[in-house]
Design brief:
4 copies of one chain form a homotetramer. With 279 residues, chain A is an alpha/beta fold. Chain A is built from 8 helices and 13 strands. The first copy, chain A, is globular and about 60 Å long.
Chain lengths: 279, 279, 279, 279
Amino acid sequence: MEQRILRTECSDKTGLIAGIAQLCFKYNYNIHHQDQFVSSEDNTFFMRSVLDGDFDKADDFMQEIKAFLPADAKASLKENKKANIAVLVTKESHCLGDILMKSYSGALDANVVMVAGNYNKLEDLANKFNVPFHLVSHEGISRDEQEQRMMEVIDSYDVDYIVLAKYMRILSPKMVAHYPLGKLINIHHSFLPAFIGARPYEQAFNRGVKIIGATAHFVTNNLDEGPIITQDVISVNHRYSAENMAKAGRDVERLVLLKALNKVFDHKVFIHGNKTIVF
Amino acid sequence: MEQRILRTECSDKTGLIAGIAQLCFKYNYNIHHQDQFVSSEDNTFFMRSVLDGDFDKADDFMQEIKAFLPADAKASLKENKKANIAVLVTKESHCLGDILMKSYSGALDANVVMVAGNYNKLEDLANKFNVPFHLVSHEGISRDEQEQRMMEVIDSYDVDYIVLAKYMRILSPKMVAHYPLGKLINIHHSFLPAFIGARPYEQAFNRGVKIIGATAHFVTNNLDEGPIITQDVISVNHRYSAENMAKAGRDVERLVLLKALNKVFDHKVFIHGNKTIVF
Amino acid sequence: MEQRILRTECSDKTGLIAGIAQLCFKYNYNIHHQDQFVSSEDNTFFMRSVLDGDFDKADDFMQEIKAFLPADAKASLKENKKANIAVLVTKESHCLGDILMKSYSGALDANVVMVAGNYNKLEDLANKFNVPFHLVSHEGISRDEQEQRMMEVIDSYDVDYIVLAKYMRILSPKMVAHYPLGKLINIHHSFLPAFIGARPYEQAFNRGVKIIGATAHFVTNNLDEGPIITQDVISVNHRYSAENMAKAGRDVERLVLLKALNKVFDHKVFIHGNKTIVF
Amino acid sequence: MEQRILRTECSDKTGLIAGIAQLCFKYNYNIHHQDQFVSSEDNTFFMRSVLDGDFDKADDFMQEIKAFLPADAKASLKENKKANIAVLVTKESHCLGDILMKSYSGALDANVVMVAGNYNKLEDLANKFNVPFHLVSHEGISRDEQEQRMMEVIDSYDVDYIVLAKYMRILSPKMVAHYPLGKLINIHHSFLPAFIGARPYEQAFNRGVKIIGATAHFVTNNLDEGPIITQDVISVNHRYSAENMAKAGRDVERLVLLKALNKVFDHKVFIHGNKTIVF
């Protein structure tokens, strides 16, 4: 007995759940667990079904599923295996460190196949975990040129997701468009939509806020505006300098990013316009 | 178009979701939202389905549902209406106050039909909200006698749930058995299973804990051991006296209780042995 | 033995704590507890000292304190008594309800001396707790005129603080300037600085955020920009409609506001530029 | 200018703060920040003062401080430097991993001078960070013998603290007594006092709790009963298996332990009977 995940996404109509359940029954797939949601704005149906069974005839099953679903449907059947990921970094180690450590201990369902950075400060850390590191410096070359090189490095690997783990460069529309929506995941050093832009902890300090946060989101062309996956916050107070806030913020950043990655790698996240459904 | 909630609970078998969905389809009930869970210990299936439709033939539908389900099944179709509740109190006002206020403002889907207490300290508060108050004193009479009178008072009303809102008397097995499991809801002044018994905040203070909590649970014969519905905590520190801890605890107690009541009144809670499934 | 609170605020210099402590010692005031902070930006010293003693010669003590402190110092000695407050409302009851209930039960160190609103919807609620309600409608009159009447109503009472408990009108600079900074406290229906302006929960819904919050702050002429006292958040998800977010938000709003009021009434909050120190 | 931390602990009396402040003034040490607490049970005074100055005459200063304080006083002046720590482990990597990573990145003020375990599973991880690992197996030898060897290994290093980072062996009273109280820090895989003993996550699962937590505490002879430093919790629900609870618990464990270590290494923790004061 194997376990696979059926993801369904289409315009809603009566009988969708019944029809899908009937097809699972026909192929002798037991629905171990199922999450479902219909958006109230535009009546879009989302479902994630965990199926137990023998998937020899999975192709036939998916053909029947697609024939049954409305024309606008997206449906996929995901195998239960580790994601292959590329991690992009600059100088800060806290997110990469947590990804490497959790991948090493088995607490993150992912293989880090490579790390690339515009500085080589984290090469040593990647190498500790036997992960190849690529320096793609931005110095002395155009932004376009640097991005071109970065994409070549990434594309020389077969990766499911690209994680921007405090990669402090703004991706051009060209690079964003080069990858399908949902493949690029970013951790934003702030509780969006507050403190967009540079030096968020200094902004937070100057505003005298009592809470700071972080946001993990998919990358789109609208900087800092992609679909939010997870967010979390911690309390701060007047004793925190901007630097202390940044230090505290790092802990939130890595927790929020790792939580998002776990959800994404588990196929629990659907993108819906500029929002997400996270089961 | 009306909305009703179908609750299903039975031993799991392949095709349950498909079969129920088919019947909903047959009666033209659209499944607006559905939550489902199978316990791993004993393979019990739980499902809460929010149905939109015309429920003129609801009785026929439920007959077909029951015919389809295994013999051990419990199934019910709940109308979308306010719960009628009795609230039992002693002297502390914070839980009763929140129940009355939220019922008054419409933030709790319940009518408080009466309040009863073994002291009359909260009579004034109940009356402010035009709710009858019954004094059922324990003074000068046996525990058995007091309970008997309390049950008579309660049973003179038609209530869906009895909320022990800091009612500081231990119910006898006789009184517990007098009501079906799930009807009596208690707020326990502690994070169960820690600090069971009397003076929990003094216990917490003496132990020097950094977090205190509260637990809402259904009442069973095992004192403080009934199925837990909701729990929450707050941070405390060395500056808190036992009294300060109690004061802080009161805020957690009312929040935890009200959250539990909202879930129960919304038919989102299933009891499974000594645990709950809360959708 | 009485307890009073000494608040000190001035430019920092070596020996401040020693000097103040010496004067307390001289007057036989025991320092029961003391919190102190020096801002790193401009070296301002803030201290809150809880003193036990016999305060017959409190005036002499304060004269000596002021003589000792730098010329720019603010110092005050607060008696331990309940604050008198006016509460301004519009239609939403959750914040006023919590203030009245906690004042009634003794969990808030304040007497609500009056409630005033631009609608009379909450008159009934105020009256339940025997608090006078004043309708100061904005209908048919100018904004200026309505404000003028509101200030007259407020000023006919002797109040320590004015709490804007979901008072959905923007105060003019004139009205803000009419009261000393620190007297007007507002609860903002959002996690500042995010979602400033109208319909914050719809904004939050449209942005697809996973967390919503609330902010209690002192009122200044910069709308939504006054010094923040407390903030808190709760998690939401894709299942929350804008309306559900508003409902969840109300619980955060009342908790954040009540927490802020407790801190302010306990003389634990200092205003420093556009920030606060909260001991 | 240097920064040092003065820790004072003694029976309370009027004039303590004044006297200490006077001595700081005399030696030209500016009190940059000061936290102070008097326990209500037994009137013990605790103070942590951050002093800026030139500490050439620190010995004279401490002599005067001790002469001024009551006979039962403990006072110390801590230099601002990294703690040297030994970490004891068994098989689980999450706490050691976080300690190594944060020490590596500078987010923890400590040098990990060695790791010792009763299994060698984490030798590879320690070596990645160039930290020596000592296997002190318990196999084939008595508990007493194993402990003896462990103490010899530890004592061959000069360490300020010994961190039990999921070291799954119960220390004998002999080993506990071998080190001063405050030197041994443990992370307990549960929210104390709940679920003391073996397999806490299975206990939590069986009880159906909605929250699980972790506790960092100093080690005393009363197993799981030492003074609590920090605690935290996370929410769980019916979907969590005992194994999922353990996985979620690991994240809480490492966060709680690291938070405790930061507080201890910063000299912010005082032990008072079986409790702690944490500034």
